[in-house]
Amino acid sequence: MRTTCWQLIAVLFSLGVGHAEPHITEAVLGHDRIQKPGSYEIVKPSTVFAPNTAKIVCVFRLEGAGIGMNINSVWIAEDVGRAAPPNYKIAEKSLRLPFMNSGSVYLSKPTKGFPVGSYRLEIYIGSKLAKTLKFSVQTP
Q1: pTM
Q2: CATH numbers and ranges of domains, the chain
Q3: What is the pLDDT of residues 20-47, one digit of tens each?
Q4: Can you give the chain as a three-state secondary structure string?
């Protein structure tokens, strides 16, 4: 019996071959973002920010994702001295991807500014940790 190419492809996909789980291919922190057709672009990329930075933005790209996929972000102050306990969760936000394979999250400046110290952003696809980005806040 002869198997056609389409039958072979159908069997491979049913076994999970050739079908990767959604994953982040790139994530960049910066000071703002620009919306482009079908995606975002980071403005002033950086991993070091001043306490008076208006917002810290992350633009990320994914493979295997689609519009409406659930993404969660967790912003954590790892070590900011007396301003907060170690590994303090600042904010947790969920979003549904507005574009195919692209998204963005941000953290706005607190009233008194960002405390000097080390931070991280965790990005989850559903409940699975997909990417961790470390950054710091320093006085100029």
Answers
A1: 0.83
A2: 20-137 (2.60.40.2550)
A3: 799 999 999 999 999 999 899 999 999 9
A4: CCCCHHHHHHHHHHCCCCCCCCEEEEEEEEEEEEEECCEEEEEEECCEECCCCCEEEEEEEEECCCCCCEEEEEEEEEECHHHCCCCEEEEEEEEECCECCEEEEEEECCCCCCCCEEEEEEEEECCEEEEEEEEEECCC
